[in-house]
Batch of 2 targets.
Target 1
Amino acid sequence: MYWFVVIIAFLLAGIKTKKPKYKKVSVIIPAYNEEETVGKVVEVIKKVSFVDEVIVVNDGSSDDTEAEAIKAGAIVINHETNKGKGEALHTGYKEAECDIIAFIDADIYNLTSKKVEAMIKPILEGKTDITKTKFARESGRVTELTAKPLLNFFFPEISFEQPLSGQFAARKEILKKINFENDYGVDVGIVIDADVLGISIMEVDIGAIQHDMSPLADLNIMANEVVRTIINRANKYGRVTMIDDIGYYIRMSIVGLSLVILGLFTIFFVKFIPLAIAVFITIIGIVLSVYYIVKVIVQSILMFKKIPKGNLVKSFIKIHFPMIISVVILLLMISTFIGAAHFENGVISIEPNSRNLIIYADDSPRENVISARGPYTIDTAIENETNKIRMPTDAMMTLGIDVNDTMIINGVSYKVESSRPGDSDIIRLPLEVEKELQLENGAIIQNSRLKEVFEGVKVIHHYGDDNTSIIEKFSISSKDINASNFEIFVDNESVAYSYGIFDENSNYIISINNKQVKTITCNNGTFSDCNFTYNGHQISIIFEDRNNTSIKQIIKANQGNFLNIIIKK
């Protein structure tokens, strides 16, 4: 057994463990007449422990840039003439023997090793393929006035704070896929290429930096080169086609979809426009939208075949978004019409019913100031529920009733209950109630018509608290009329709050524990004394006009008591 353990140990020891491959880092510094700062920049970079080589590309300088760079310990590659920043970066990239390359400007006065580490570490740690920097600085006119607007137009998925930062790092293998511009367009060119090719880019904050501000003449040259680079890339990657050709097709398809929507809306909701005109508008819209949507699809397929995918989808969705929204709106509209279609005896009938948007502008106590209700479908009460009326909460709110209230129709009492699960927007009525209200199964009732359907129906409404119950009686009015609010106090404690329509010069009865104890009169919107005592309890009812309306027509004295206060203690 011991021999077996020893053999296994030797075998395991003989297996070669794969060590992580060491990543060599090079830093490329393009320099043109930077004798004052290049030496210090090199010295700072060489202090970073994982930097293996520092290469200064002397781009045709006429001062001592080369000497200062050599003195600081850098490898120097000379251009006989000034070829531009992009060419200098490319020269250094070709000469560097490394896995990771960082590009850093030679004119930074306050460069620190921490800033350099912040650029390179995310790549060493495998978090990204490319890092570009953002930092606080005084200038940035080319970025804000030129680069960002053009990038937002042609490449909206690129949203870096400083696309022209100048300092960045990348894996060398990745840089082989990127086309280096030979001038100031190199920075934005790398960002665009990486984005379109789907290469991961991370923007890292390296804090504030200080460097020489470029004169206006140089900024003009820089702006021209940045614009040229962005436009060239937009042409190369099909963004001009996407914006121009496809953009035109999208706009025209939206026009067509809008005409279809307008035509359908006119057919069903605009009476003063002849039906023939509405149908003509709809047909023209269908032809336009179909034609241009097909053009959009064809051009989009061709573009996808020719251009690297990468992050193209993000821009594609943003540009197509208006058309997508229009299509969704039209589909929702068509689905509504299909849902409202009926076929009977060879005749197709389409009668859409809209929801009722309600906005309360008065001071009435409401749970929701704004709500959208209905329409409702009439159906017969289920078996064993011939004494119940089931309706959605929205319908109850419209009628001013609640669960467990009682509706009296043609002298018969029916208990009100909420809709059964799955019966949203369905009102279930006993057959006798359907006949009395002249309704048929399947009838669609808009929320605004609900009051007309139940006009005159008497309601016994229950509310209150643990110690006191209130039974209130009213009938449903088909119109909203000015109403009065009232609050009920028992022994100086508020027990209920309600509202309703009280007619002028009319009497109303108040009962306590089913016994009539008080009759009040409404005169010019005010009421006679509503303070009294019953069996040692102080009862007060305070009325106030709060400029609100209601459909609750309070029961008058000749029809019975309008309030029955049940005191449980």
Target 2
Amino acid sequence: MAAPKRGRSASAQSKPGRSLALILIAIVALTGGMFASGNTTPRLGIDLAGGTSITLQAQNEPGQPNAINKTNMNTAVQIMNRRVNGLGVSEAEVQTQGTSNIIVNIPKGTNSAEARQQVGTTAKLYFRPVLAQEASGAAASSASPSASASGSSTASPSASPSSSASTSQKATGSSASPSSSATSQGRAVTDALKAGSTPSSSASASSSASPSATSSADASASASASAAASKLEAEYTALDCTKAAQRATAGKSAKPTDTTVACGKIGDAWYKYVLGPARVDGTDVKKAQAVYDTQSAAGWQVQMTFTGSGSKKFAEVTGELAKNTSQPTNEFGIVLDGEVVSSPTVSQSITGGSAEISGSFTQQEAQSLANVLSYGALPLSFRTESVTTVTAALGGQQLHAGLLAGAIGLALVIIYLVAFYRGLSLIAIPSLLVSAILTYTIMSLLGPTIHFALNLPAVCGAIVAIGITADSFIVFFERIRDEIREGRTLRPAVERAWPRARRTILVSDFVSFLAAAVLFIVTVGKVQGFAFTLGLTTVLDVVVVFFFTKPLMTLFARRKFFASGHKWSGLDPKGLGAKAPLRRTRRPAGPTAGPVDPKEA
């Protein structure tokens, strides 16, 4: 049984070139992929590449004076993090400062501008019945657009804005002709405001009125409603949605149960709306995604899937609006953070549990809207306190200092290897070089794949990895020297030392990797960059030692310079204090009893 084992061992020793060829192929493939993808340098974090630092201050919601608390602030941080990550922007930092501020650091790069826009967006979504609408400002003289919604139980509503006076409806094929003058729109607004709400809510109010109500109570309620309608009508009349200052406040403080005004942009024109109380809100949306409609000219849309209760609410409100035959009272406004993003026409109840938001979206706009809807609304409203552009000048200086420190550390390691291990440094230095090449190429490729960004702590992790890799070489070399001290020649010493060194290296690297994994899990922000780099380089250390250092040592052991124990090889038996090899001595032939000593006789 021993003979086959020696044969396999000899076979393994005689073919170290396979392992070297394998790691060479890996290096060529990774380097080729790096150049083919055009990502020849790692992505840099905000501290190295620059970016934007945003300070957001939480605002109390109307009627909720105690809304700013630790729970809501932490929830807002989590949602902001998911939004930024959903756009593929990594190394973004979102953290609280004090009791009411959130600091967001977004590195410069792909989608960073979009992330800056989304991070503080409250993303409160409501579906409100449209009571009135008309073009605002300079566009008031043009005809209002109309929108359409599919009427089948499995279809979804979609807005189809048009600049013409009428638009065909997908569900019925009939045409809709909204009001064409500001005067008629104004009368329609007045009538809608006097009505006070949607037909369903009016009917409900009538049916629930107490027969025993006094005439004074009726008069008081009527006066109150008339005053509210007059106030809202004045607000609507004065609203000019072409002005950013008015758009920023229109309907922003309204409660979901209020009738309110709002602005919305269709194409290049702004329109103002009177909207009834919200019937469906963003919490009823289960999922949202951006899709491109290839079957029609709608282009990019946002498809929403409602929850069970949301599906019932949506079917109910669309059924009520479908009873109206005139526009805009058969439309519902999809309102996001107080702005109407779409106002589709409803021709019948939609019970499929899904809806589409469309309105001449670009791909980026559709994906942005789907992203904020998917991750939910922020529990608080935020006001942007400051936006600071972070330059890379300081980070560049720190990076230069870090790289200088790494170069000094590497130089000291090489000096140590040459001084104490002499010829063995010809194995250690190429191993360090291979480890550096693998680390650099993988970091460059991880930028566009998992959005890894190199920051200063990550650079520190790479510098620490130099010591971890050098430690593995030293363990292996010292095991070989121990075998030589025992009197073995180099080639057997290499093969006997490897199993013992391998166990030590694996245990040491496992501990380092475990520490990096725990650090990555329990920390946030830049410290995760340090942990990720440390873990990556620890794994690469195992790969380099197994597939490069050990095979290269096996090849060098066959060379006379090392095998003969040259004094500059680092494996000189005399210099190591090796024992003389144990040899057997033959006993002399003949009788066991020797000649008798004459003195003893």
